[in-house]
Design brief:
529 residues; TIM Barrel; Double Stranded RNA Binding Domain; 3 domains; 8-stranded parallel barrel; 3-stranded antiparallel sheet; (R)-citramalate synthase activity; 2-isopropylmalate synthase activity; transferase
């Protein structure tokens, strides 16, 4: 059965705390959603603010970007009480926006009719009918969002059902039942939808769930299983309060767990990429623990788990990570066993096999001991594969350093105008020659990094392509106060791949130097191949 995926990232998602899309951001996301295969893209509320009006205007000029898969949708409320739909500015804004699909919401809970609209139940029904009928007269497809439907059904079933009947009579193509407060559980959703559909067997229904009880994904899937043919949600579940139903969990669940057709399986492989893209534009830190698409969704740390995964991935993976564009990660820690280390050896192409003449076990044992000692001192290699690669090479005696530190010095000055200048001096031994360099930077770590590059560039031109993607600092033992150790994690890239390195010290500069030098050494070691 075909399920329409209705994405409201650009409208409902933009209401999440800390999210502020520009018009350009919205256009970029719309392009990505369309390419992915989303059925409907809700662009915003053209009659409510200048930004959304400009977005629809730009989309109209661009021919809706010549969307290949999606229907661009405009949002609004029903007409105002005591007025005419034909005179409502918001409804006219939809008609003028250039879209072919409208999504309007109306109240299905009499509590809201009384306190939010401050009108009568009868007038609310007229507002719903008039608004839907007006948009249908403009040859638009109309989706009616029955706001607070589930709360309304529990408190006054007859009236909630009447709002649905009125929208259908007005000509609504799809009735989307909204779990607006996000407090329902799956059994609530199932029961109410089952009964509602029984009253209107010929109508098409959808689900719009919020996540205030942590059940938005489960509620959406339950709604589909009860007969809903549309799912509304956002990428990464962003939205007001606790967020909306997360399409990044719903889509693969419907496709792979229940065999519904919503996004082509080929396109679902782009899901992780789409998730990261939206996070980047929204300036959000990706949630590593997100199901399916998170960095840790298929990460394995316990040795027993890794051993089983090596034999059969189904032992600890509910689907293949490749199906959603993700990948398996084997984590190295003080919990690591032989299977973790061997898996990493294979991943890093160390050339060590479990069948090696008895030496493999000794090498693995040596690496495990070093990892446990390092982790006891504050190191973590889960996101620092490059540093793990280097300590392994050193432990096995197969690493020759490209340079060694003689000394470094840092100076930070602040003038009377408040300008801060950081200057670093570094002495390195490179191929038996002493290199003495001085460089400035935006802070002491940047100055050190510039110095390091300046000293090495003529010997190793490959480092020109290396740049830093991320720099994170975390206190390891906060109970030591100002004498606490800090852990510095650096993510670097050369445009073709990225890698992580780590440093730990009571001194943040020293920890940063460890991570910086590891990053360069890893690049040089890989380039040497």
């Amino acid at each position: 059965m075909k399920i329409s995926v209705f994405d409201t990232t650009l409208r409902d998602g933009s209401q999440g705390a800390g999210i502020a899309f520009t018009v350009e951001d919205k256009i970029k996301i719309a392009k990505a959603l369309d390419s992915f295969g989303i059925s409907y893209i809700e662009g915003g509320w053209p009659g409510s603010n200048p930004k959304d009006e400009l977005f629809f205007s730009q989309m109209k000029k661009l021919g809706s970007l010549r969307l290949k898969n999606a229907k661009l949708t405009a949002f609004s409320s029903t007409r105002r009480k005591g007025s005419k739909a034909s005179e409502d500015k918001s409804l006219h804004a939809i008609a003028k926006s250039g879209v072919k699909t409208a999504c309007i919401f109306g109240k299905s809970w009499d509590l809201h009719v009384k306190y939010a609209l401050k009108t009568t139940n009868e007038e609310n029904l007229k507002m719903i009918f008039d608004s839907v009928a007006f948009l249908k007269s403009k040859k638009l497809e109309v989706i009616f969002d029955a706001e607070h439907y589930f709360d309304g059904y529990r408190n006054n079933r007859e009236y909630a059902l009447e709002t649905v009947r009125t929208a259908i009579d007005g000509g609504a193509d799809i009735i989307c039942l909204c779990e607006t407060n996000g407090g329902m559980l799956p059994s609530d959703i199932q029961s109410i939808i089952r009964k509602t559909i029984s009253f209107f067997p010929k109508a098409k229904f959808g689900i719009h769930a919020h996540n205030d009880s942590g059940c938005a994904v489960a509620n959406s899937i339950a709604a589909v299983e009860e007969g809903c043919v549309m799912v509304q949600g956002t990428i990464n579940g962003i939205g007001e309060r606790c967020g909306n139903a997360n399409l990044c969990s719903i889509i693969p669940a419907l496709e792979f767990k229940r065999n519904y057709e919503c996004i082509s399986k080929k396109n679902v492989r782009k899901l992780s990429e789409l998730s990261r893209y939206v996070d980047e534009i929204a300036n959000l830190v990706p949630d590593d623990s997100s199901p399916y698409i998170g960095n840790n969704a298929f990460a394995h740390k316990a040795g027993i788990h890794v051993s089983a995964i090596e034999r059969n991935p189904e032992t600890y993976e509910h689907i293949s990570p490749a199906l959603v564009g993700n990948k398996r990660r084997i984590l190295i820690s003080d919990l690591s066993g032989k299977s973790n280390i061997m898996s990493k050896f294979n991943e890093m192409e160390m050339g060590i096999k479990d069948t090696d003449d008895g030496n493999a076990s000794e090498k693995i044992k040596k690496v495990i001991e070093i990892v446990k000692e390092k982790e006891n001192n504050g190191y973590q290699y889960e996101n620092a594969d490059a540093s793990f690669f280097l300590i392994t090479k050193k432990a096995l005696g197969s690493f020759k350093p490209f340079f060694s530190l003689v000394c470094y010095r840092l100076m930070v000055e602040k003038d009377s105008d408040g300008n801060i200048v950081s200057e670093a001096t570094v002495k390195l031994d490179v191929r038996g020659k002493e290199e003495h360099t001085v460089a400035e930077g935006n802070g002491p770590v940047d100055a050190l990094n510039n110095c390091l590059r300046k000293a090495l560039i003529k010997y190793y031109p490959d480092i020109k392509s290396v740049f830093l993607l991320d720099f994170k600092v975390r206190v390891v033992n906060s109970d030591a106060n100002t004498a606490a150790k800090v852990r510095v994690l650096i993510e670097s890239s050369d445009a073709s791949k990225s890698w992580g390195t780590i440093g730990v010290s009571e001194n943040i500069i020293d920890a940063s130097w460890q991570a910086l030098s590891d990053s360069v050494e890893y690049k040089l070691l890989k380039s040497k191949k």
